[in-house]
Amino acid sequence: MAKNDMCIIMYKILKYMYECLKLGKMIDPEDICNNCEMFRIPQTYWTQIMKELIDHKYVSGVYEIKRIGTGESGIKFGVNTGITFEGVQFLEENSGMEKAADFLGAPFETILLNIISRIM
């Protein structure tokens, strides 16, 4: 498993959102953008991952937008961005997410807590 595998990126995004929810913190889109502290991936790849999370209803308050004239997609974060119950289930019960958690281990948990602690 590579650090930029889709399952790894999805896990990081969902885990971040779930920890924010449990701690009562607002999600900062900058913490999960394509070029953030947790990962650095191409914009198009990140957009595709976010579309998957939206389409499967693992996140709420996140929207795919179409850019007029270009046919390109973008992602917009709303006021009530967060993980859904379906997202929590996917995070906790999917074997791919379990492998991602094992692959990342304790160092990721430390980074995640540092990022969340900065959120006001």
How would you describe this protein?
The chain is of the alpha+beta class. It has a single domain, classed as Arc Repressor Mutant, subunit A (Orthogonal Bundle). The chain has 4 helices and 2 strands; from the N terminus they run ααββαα. It has a two-stranded antiparallel ribbon. α1 crosses α4 (95-118). The longest helix has 24 residues, at 95-118. The chain is globular, with a radius of gyration of 14 Å. The mean pLDDT is 90.
Based on the model shown, name its key terms.
53% helix, two-stranded antiparallel sheet, 4 helices, single chain, Arc Repressor Mutant, subunit A, alpha+beta
Structural class: alpha+beta
Q: Give the count of helical stretches.
A: 4
Number of domains: 1
Number of strands: 2
The CATH class turns out to be Mainly Alpha
Q: Give the helices and strands as they follow along the chain.
A: HHEEHH
Quaternary organization = single chain
The residue ranges in which pLDDT falls below 50 over 5 or more consecutive positions are none
- What is the mean predicted local confidence, pLDDT? 90
* Helix proportion range: 40-55%
Instruction: Using the 3D structure, state the CATH architecture.
Output: Orthogonal Bundle
